[in-house]
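Entry 14. Ran structure prediction on the chain below.
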Amino acid sequence: MTALTLKELSADAIAASSRQRGEPAWLTGRRVEAWSFFAQAGPPEWRRTDLSGLRPEELAPTTTTAMTLEWDEALAGQGVTLRPLNAALASHEDLIKARMDTAVAPLEHKFSALRAALWQDGVLLHVPRNVAAEAPIRVRYGLPAGSRVTFPRTLVIVEDHAQVTLIEEFISGDQPAAALAAPVTEIFAGPGSRVRFVSIQRWGDGVYHIGGQKVVLERDANLEWTSVAIGAKVQHIEAETTLKGDGSQVNWLGATFAGDAQKLLTAPWLRHVGHHAESYMEFRTVVNDTGYSVFDGMIKIERESTGTSTRLEEHALHLNPGARNDSIPGLKIDTNSVLKGGHASTSGDVDEEQLFYMQSRGISKTEAKRMIVMGFFGPALDTIPIEALRMELEAAIEAKI
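Output, C-alpha cells:
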C-alpha cells in the first residue's frame, strides 16, 4: 500500500495498488469488497476488548514486509512449497484462490474485513500428499521498519496423509505509540494428515493484536496445536478448530501470561461436524500486576455430528491481587448423539502452603513462584520442538513473574 492512512484510503486506491503489484483481478475484487465492508461497518461489540487506545486514522499501511522463513530447503525436493504469499500467486494461483478466505470469514466483522483488504506479508505452505516434512518450519512476523501496522497472513495446505510442523511467531520490541497487528492463519489438513502447529504471540508493549486463526480437519486428520501468548498491550484472537471429517482429532494446549497492564483475550472454539471425532483443549493462564486475561472458549457440536468425544478446560493462576482473569467456557450441542462432552475452569492464587513448604526447604519465595509458574506452563511449553525457542520463551516468562 501507499503511505496513506486508514482514514485516507479508498476502494479506488486499494484497487490501483493491487493492480500495480500485478495481482489477479479476483484478488483485487476481494480486496475492494472487503474494504467497502470495512468502511461502512460499525465496530464489533467486544465487551472485554478495550480498543480505545488504538487510533486507526493514524495508521498507514506500507508495502514493506517484516517476515523471515526458516526451513530445511531439502524439503523442496520432496515437493514442499514455502513461499511468500504474493510470490506464490504466480505459481499456485488456483490453489490460493480456492482456499484463501474460506476458513476465516473475511466479512465477519470490521477487523476481519480490514485484514482481507490490506494483507501484505504472508506465506503459502503446501505439503503434497504422502510427504512427511520432518524438520520444523518456522515463520516469523514483525512490524515493518517505520510502520505501526502489519496485516500478515499464513495459508497452509496439507494434502492427504502428509505431515508437517509449523511454528508461527509474532514478535517486536516495545512501541512508543499504538501499533496494530492483524494476522490471519488458515490451515487445511487433508484426510489422514498430521499437523503440529505452534503459534507464539510475543509482541512488545503498545501493540494491539487482533487475529483470526482457523484449522479445518478432514477425515482422520490429526492436529496438535500449541498457543502461547505473552506479549502485546491488547490481544483479541478468534481461533477455531473445525473437526469436519469423520475420525478427526485435535489436542490443543495454551499458555497465556498477562502482566503489567496487559489485556489478553483468546476466544478458542472446537467445532464438531464429522462423526466420531475427538477433541481436547486445555489452556493455562497466569496473571500478574494489573494484567487482565480472558478465556472465552466454546465447544459447538453441530446437528450432523455423531459419536463426539470432547472436553475443554482452562486453569488460571493469580500472582497479584490486582490481576484478573475471566474464564467463560461454553458448550453448545445440537445433536443427541454425543459419547462424552464437558468443560471446566479453575482460578486461584498461588497456594501459600506450597510456598511455605518450598521456603522451608531453603527455596526463596521468588524462586518458589518461578518454579510453580514454569511447572504450571510445562504441558504447553514442552511441546515446542525447537529447544532454543523454548528457552527464549521460558526466559521471557520468568522475566514477567
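The CA atoms of residues 381 and 391 lie 9 Å apart. Will compare against last week's run tomorrow.
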